[in-house]
Specification:
Chain lengths: 158, 755
């Protein structure tokens, strides 16, 4: 099968890859680029475990073709922390014990970061609706919602 | 006490236990570095895919794999012929039959063949080239229909056990079981009020977010390695070895991080197939389920039909309890009906109690354990009836439960006599909780329910190695499914008197430790915790011995306090204390490495009880139910890491909410599942839910040094009934069928003439 050459930017780095026309961005990230932080929970855009940003928009990477990454700016979980320094959301999720198995956590981090970039002062309902596309089967969401609200407060304090 | 007294509970002040430190695997999980089942790659790796039956029930006349094998890029195709042929009848044979169909496909999604190819797309193409000649047979997916005479029979060799006389013809009813004591007929004769109802629950899936995945690598010398997500890698090793016909010692299994399980990863589905493909291809093979495959071909829990009858006197004392439980286990025997029957009335101190259970096969995927397997459905039925009884008697539902509650010394409905248990404490805490006094709004109802789970100990083997710098590495053999490494590190640090950060826990592979049972039965914090504490005590003893040798005094004159050896007693002499690091640094000169080990078949797990309070609001126009208040009160024995205990409470409650309101396996008339995806099989999302309040009760378990009881499973036992009681209160009609979806609730309102 003829492969498609793609030039893109991932977490600020220029990246080039070849992919098959049917491969999703998630397939490319995981299988071709070895970036396994984004997880495949459903492959149908229902669970949010593969959340990434594309030109700043929150996207399920399982619903986008790899070839569509051409010329875009992709943001993944691997780009959220800065070396040893965690993003405040990551620290707050840890502090609040807002993960159990942790498979949904990368998607939650990417999605919640996207929320806080749009609205640094969400209320509980907004957090719940924004994260409604990120399934978590372990926590019952209580601690996740608290962690995101706490992170928002921390960010607002500067 | 099941264990000798040195392992039993003794009260103490804790320094680390009961705190809420960050978990050791946390940073890897929030940054995406943690490697789960599908995150492993090997050089030269092939991609595997499984061909699955499109029919609910069909005889496999023949399979022709020649075209698939001829496709360029395909390196191996396997069918049942590539597995061991000498597997004995019984559970292992059932697992083999489930992993790869033999003569019949028993449910839609049953594996019939598999391929390994150089890419996913070639593997997918190859599946389409495999020709299977099916003779489609009549099917049955409903538990009660499967029990009827004349129902399509799945297995010619199943004759109902536990009935007299033994049936002369095969059926789908595998077994009748009975538990209880006393004389229920006499009890019902003494009752002033009797309430009885029939209930139905649908199958629900554990719904872990990580699909099953593994990477197998068999060598030409017949040995192999396997990486994958599982709740029990020792079980995976033993089962795979049996199914492939190889020695156990030749297989090394490493448990990846696990993205949820809840019981659904306590068996094998893909692993033997990946190994068979790898053996045939001579290359590593990765197999990952799609979400659709997870729904179709991994174990949901049973659907059930349950009848409950309870009698009581006017003062609320229950005179008799009876339940008949019918559970389907999918295509193979082994539904959790016995545990359902045992758990049904476990919350009550009853003179007369009887439960009859029926284990039934249907053309559905083989059920797997799901969090307190069997108990939530039984509790749904019993606790619904108990609450209705309270209404009929005009007694507060918590008071009625308190009046009849099981306590220390109660002969349980399933046999043993309870030791110290915390049911009464949970009921009292629930009654005193502000939630219980909150005023309800229009269309709202409040429900309460209690629940019980046995908990389990099991085979456990743990090693604690003291490193040269005085830090410790702890090897446990139980996969960490929800933060257990943190609690292991805490218990080791507590026992050694060193900082939490100085202990690092790993989940060791199957070649590095003795056998460990699966992470199930809420056993890990209890059993691996007990083994960790005991291993730390052994290490402490050795540290004291080394200190004694360094000082030249008898070991009896050394005591271990706050992470250091100190001379103690009148003849010890004057020495500066030796820290764990001081002793470890010179261990090579004083006798070699220092470690503690412990191996045990842990007993005395100590059951856990819970009481839940739920507020539900029903939209009278649509039948939509919102849960708008939820409080979990549960006995943890001792909460090692309270934040993760709360997390277990909250997670179990929410899974229960999904079970009551939304989730179910929907089958069409062809026996095919119609909602095999997260869009149509909708688990609760963040916007469906309120905050879940928690109260941790601590009645120490005498079978654990720190008093720990398992907590993971009990939390899903009460919510089905608690939510059902709240919804029934809100609509004014007793609802007896799950899920309580909007059409069903609306119909109940219409039938009652309420809308």
């Amino acid at each position: 099968m003829k492969r498609i050459p793609v030039s893109t930017t991932i977490n600020g780095d220029a990246v080039e890859f070849l992919c098959e026309p049917e491969e999703t961005l998630l397939d490319v990230l995981r299988d071709r680029l070895g970036m396994t932080g984004s997880k495949e929970g459903c492959g149908t855009g229902d669970c949010g475990a593969c959340s990434v940003t594309v030109d700043g928009r929150l996207v399920c990477s399982c619903l986008m073709l790899g070839a569509e990454a051409q010329g875009r700016e992709i943001g993944t979980i691997e780009g959220v922390s800065d070396g040893e320094r965690l993003h405040v959301l990551q620290s707050k999720l840890l502090e609040h014990a807002a993960l159990q198995c942790g498979i949904c956590t990368p998607g939650i981090v990417v999605a919640a970061k996207s929320l806080l970039e749009r609205n640094p002062d969400p209320d509980e309902t907004e957090v719940r609706y924004w994260l409604a596309g990120n399934l978590c089967r372990c926590t019952g969401y209580d601690k996740i919602v608290r962690a995101v609200l706490d992170a928002a407060q921390e960010i607002r304090k500067g | 006490m099941p264990l000798d007294s040195k392992h039993g509970f003794s009260p103490r002040q804790f320094k680390v236990v009961g705190e809420r430190p960050l978990r050791p695997d946390g940073i890897d999980k929030v940054t995406g570095r943690a490697r789960f089942g599908a995150d492993a790659f090997a050089p030269g790796m092939l991609f595997g895919k499984v061909l699955r039956s499109p029919h609910a029930h069909a005889r496999i006349r023949s399979i022709d794999t020649s075209k698939a094998e001829a496709l360029p890029g395909v390196k191996a195709v396997v069918t049942r012929a590539d597995f061991a042929t000498d597997v004995e009848e019984g559970e292992t044979a059932n697992v083999l039959e489930n992993v790869m169909a033999g003569e019949k496909a028993l449910y839609e999604g049953h594996a019939v063949a598999a391929v390994a190819a150089v890419s996913n797309s070639i593997a997918k193409k190859a599946l389409k080239l495999i020709e299977v000649d099916y003779e489609v047979l009549p099917h049955v997916t409903d538990v009660e229909k499967a029990m009827e005479p004349g129902a399509p029979v799945l297995h010619d060799h199943i004759f109902t056990e536990g009935v007299e006389p033994k049936p002369s013809s095969p059926s789908n009813v595998c077994q009748r079981i009975e538990v209880g004591h006393g004389d229920v007929e006499k009890g019902f004769a003494e009752a002033d009020v009797i309430v009885e109802h029939s209930f139905k629950t649908e199958a629900t899936h554990q719904g872990y977010i990580e699909p099953h995945a593994c990477l197998a690598n068999m060598s030409a010398d017949g040995s192999g390695e396997l990486w994958g997500c599982t709740q029990g890698h020792f079980m995976v090793r033993d089962t795979c070895a049996a199914l492939l016909g190889i020695d156990v010692s030749r297989l090394r299994v490493t448990a990846s991080e696990i993205g949820g399980g809840f019981g659904g990863k306590t068996t094998v589905f893909l692993e033997p197939t990946a190994l068979a493909l790898s053996r045939k291809a001579g290359k590593p093979v990765k197999l990952v389920m799609t979400r659709e495959e997870v729904f179709l071909a991994s174990g949901p829990t049973s659907s059930t039909a349950i009848h409950v009858k309870i009698g009581a006197k006017k003062d609320g004392s229950i005179t008799a309890g009876f339940a008949e439980l019918k559970y389907q286990g999918g295509a193979f025997p082994g539904s959790p009906v016995e545990m359902g029957a045992m758990a049904a009335f476990a919350c009550y101190d009853l003179e007369n109690v009887k439960c009859v259970g029926w284990d039934v096969v249907t053309n559905r995927p083989k059920q797997a354990a799901y969090r307190a397997p069997g108990a939530p459905m039984a509790a749904f039925a019993v606790e619904s009836v108990v609450s209705e009884l309270a209404g009929k008697l005009g007694i507060d539902p918590i008071d009625l439960r308190l009046k009849n509650a099981a306590k220390e010394g109660t002969k349980s409905s399933y046999g043993p006599t309870f030791g110290p248990i915390g049911l009464v404490e949970t009921l009292e805490a629930a009654k005193a909780h502000p939630h219980y006094a909150k005023k309800l709004g229009p269309n709202q109802g409040r429900g309460v329910a209690s629940g019980f789970w046995f908990n389990f100990g099991g085979q456990t083997c743990t090693s604690l190695n003291v490193n040269i710098d005085g830090t410790c590495t702890l090897s446990v053999g139980t996969p960490d499914i929800g933060g257990s490494r943190a609690s292991m590190c805490m218990m080791a640090a507590e026992e050694l008197g060193i900082p939490y950060d100085n202990v690092r826990a790993i989940v060791a592979d199957t070649s590095s430790l003795g056998y460990n049972d699966v992470t199930d039965g809420s056993r890990v914090t209890f059993a691996s915790g007990l083994a960790t504490i005991t291993a730390a005590r052994e290490a402490k003893k050795k540290l004291c011995e080394r200190a004694a040798a360094m000082w030249g005094i008898p070991v009896e004159a050394v005591e271990w306090v706050d992470g250091e050896a100190r001379p103690a007693g009148p003849n010890a002499g004057e020495f500066e204390p030796l820290s764990i690091a001081d002793i470890a640094a010179v261990a090579g000169n004083t006798g070699g490495p220092i470690a503690g080990h412990y191996e045990v078949s842990a007993d005395g797990a100590g059951p856990s009880f819970a009481t839940h309070i739920v507020d539900a609001e029903v939209d009278p126009d649509t039948g939509r139910v919102w849960v708008n208040g939820y409080t979990v009160v549960q006995d943890a024995g001792k909460a090692i890491h309270p934040a993760y205990v709360e997390g277990q409470f909250q997670g179990g409650a929410v899974q229960g909410i999904g079970w009551v309101l939304n989730e179910c396996y929907m089958y069409n008339d062809k026996g095919k599942m119609e909602n095999a995806g997260f869009l149509d099989y909708r688990i609760p999302v963040a916007s469906d839910l309120p905050m879940i309040d928690t109260v941790i009760v601590e009645v120490p378990n005498p079978g654990h040094p720190y008093g720990v009881r398992g907590v993971g499973e009990t939390s899903i036992v009460p919510p089905l009934a608690a939510v059902a009681n709240a919804v029934s209160a809100a609509v004014g009609v007793r609802l007896t069928e799950l899920p309580m979806s909007p059409p069903r609730v609306l119909k109940a309102l219409e039938d009652k003439g309420l809308v």
